[in-house]
Every structure is written in C-alpha cells, then in structure tokens.
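Input sequence (124 aa), recorded before submission:
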Amino acid sequence: QVQLAEFGGGSVQSGGSLRLSCAASGYTYNIYCMGWFRQAPGKEREGVAVIENYSMTRYTDSVKGRFTISQDTAENMLYLQMNSLKPEDTAMYYCAAKLGGCPGSWEYFPYNYWGQGAQVTVSS
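Predicted structure, token format:
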C-alpha cells in the first residue's frame, strides 16, 4: 500500500504562484509514475502533469510553460510549482501514483493511489 498526502494549496490572485507538495509513504518501490490531477466543481477530473521514471515529464497543454512537476526520490516527495496562475486553474488538486509506467493518455482511472486533495483558488 502507498499513502499520499498533499499540502501547500491556498488562495492567490491571478498571476501569482503556489507550490503543491505530495508526501508518499509505504511500499513505493514499484511506483514509476506519479502525477497531479485536478477537478473543478461540475467538471471531470483532468490530468495536469505527470513524471515517469523519476525524470520524464509531460504536461497538459493548458499549463505548459507555467507549471513544473518535480520529484525528490530520496525524500519520497512530489512537487508541482505553479506560476502565472489563472482563475481557470481553480480546482481541487490531487496527487496520484501508479504501479509501473505512466499511461499514454490523461485518463485518471489507471492510477492506483490518490491523495485527499488540496484546494487551489485563483481570484481575478
């Protein structure tokens, strides 16, 4: 089992920055894919960024150039640095982990473990 816990959410004005952190614990040895997803009220959960094999990153188009995903394997931490935030980035952000590699799509259901979520609110 793997446990994930996010922290670092909050409220910022448009153009501001936030950094989300996710602490992973438990049996993480077979986890080669970790990612950040978000879900706004009334919308489906969507993929934001993933990191595979500790270094290969991928971002959804709407956050490219603004968000950076990174991983500290020694500390079992996953991060999401969010810059130039926009009101449309407002959502609950979830850390996710998957056994094996990342799927080729942004579908969320292949992920095995999820955190409880961290709220990010961006005001205009």
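Checked by second reader. The CA atoms of residues 59 and 109 lie 18 Å apart.
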